[in-house]
Amino acid sequence: MRPGKPITFGSLNGRPVFGLPGNPVSAMVTYELFVRPALRKMAGHARLTRPSVQAEALAPIPNPGARRGYLRVTLTPHNGGYGARLTGEQGSSILKSMVLADGLAVVPPDTTIETGAPVEVILLR
Q: Which CATH fold would you assign to the domain 52-123?
């Protein structure tokens, strides 16, 4: 996945241990996708993951490379639903991309979601 490597999970003395990446955005994304659901499960919650919506890409959303992308997007009302647009540069050290994000667009490897195409967005707000 992109961003988000390396990540590890294990236990130490019967307690769960998570190892997150060092870049801030990578750590935040992997927390949302792996750690948060695990903690919710341990706390007895029924809904483990954040909700997601289908949005329409308002501009191209490229994901070059061989890893699935969880790209930071803003959402705006659009055609009775949502429109999604990248928050800007998507580097794993660019904290502003996460601060501005309403959600994470899920984009397959080596894919560009073209303007007007649907994209799944995991809601963060």
A: Beta-clip (2.40.340)
Looking at residue 98, its pLDDT comes to: 96
Domain ranges for the chain: 8-42, 52-123
Q: Mean pLDDT over residues 63-83, rounded? A: 97
Measured CA to CA, the distance from residue 54 to residue 45 in angstroms comes to: 25
Please measure the distance between the N-terminal and C-terminal CA atoms of the chain and give it in whole angstroms: 22
> Is the separation of the CB atoms in 104 and 120 below 8 Å?
no
- Average pLDDT over every residue of 80-89: 97
6 preceded by a cis bond (ω within 30 of 0): yes
Contact 60, 112 (CB under 8 A): yes
At residue 5 the predicted structure's pLDDT band, cuts being 50, 70 and 90, is confident
d(C-alpha 49, C-alpha 33), whole Å: 8
